[in-house]
Amino acid sequence: MKLCRYGEPGEERPALIDESGVLRSLAGVIGDLSPKVLAPARLASLAAIDPQSLPRVDHGQRLGVPVAGIGKYICIGLNYRDHAEEAGLSVPDEPIVFLKAITALSGPNDPILPPAGASRLDWEAELAVIIGTRAKTIELSAALDHVAGYCVANDVSERAFQMQSSQWDKGKGCDTFGPLGPWLVTKDDVPDPQNLEIWLDVNGRRMQRGNTRTMIFSVAEIVAYVSRYMTLMPGDVIATGTPPGVGMGMRPEPVYLRSGDLVELGIEGLGRQRQYVA
Questions:
Q1: Domain residues of the chain, as ranges?
Q2: What is the DSSP letter of 256?
């Protein structure tokens, strides 16, 4: 099941995508795609609805962040060996955890707004995990039971800010640095999160191509690991790292985003994003 939210910022309404790709409103069924809707029983009740019974939404609507009321946006750094190597950094022995500000969240096709002083604006296509049920110090074998679904994320980064100290948050958490969506795809439609193709283009040129099977730490390992240090709540997001091909790692010289550039990215079965740099 593909769930999303559409409408202007702050006025988004819930919807699902039917098998033919048509947007169908859920506004008469639920108030919003809030964390409480991500519980297994609530998702099952939505899956039982005949999409053809739902009102059709006009084409061309803006898509927002697919889940309302996200509490934490957690990121995992250097989770692909070849990405760590291109960045000139050591392959981690355990997951590197940092946070994006919630105010970084934006719709999948909203523009990227470079902050004042930005000079090394970069891209990172990532698989994002949406938590469905509370998870605290859970076992690896139970980790995926706490996942509601998956979506596409672009971990937009300002490298000049990121590398000013050992703390990455400043370079990762600027406004519009967290495009998420277009959909939340429930986990029953993603049988193996460790075998998904990921790609990203800049101005039509393929920059990133990878597969989640080459992650250093799997989705289940990440969820279990993070739950040891902070309680994961419904609606929390975990971005699981990016494959090689980021601008910082380009040779002979790095390549960074400029005003007017078009970034397009996607993950197999999870949809695609499209962002212009303002």
A1: 2-53, 73-276
A2: -
Beta carbons of 38 and 132 less than 8 angstroms apart: yes
Q: How far apart are the first and last CA of the chain?
A: 33
Provide CATH code, domain 73-276.
3.90.850.10
The reply to whether the predicted model has a pTM over 0.90 is yes
For residues 132 and 150, the answer to whether their CB atoms sit within 8 Å is no
Q: Which residues contact 146 (CB under 8 A, 6 or more apart)?
A: 131, 132, 133, 134, 135, 138, 223, 227, 232
Q: Beta strands 237-239 and 73-77: pairing type?
A: parallel
Integer Cα distance of 7 and 240 in angstroms: 28
| pLDDT tens per residue across span 168-224 | 888 899 999 999 999 999 999 999 999 999 999 999 999 999 999 999 999 999 999
- For residue 67, give the amino acid letter: V
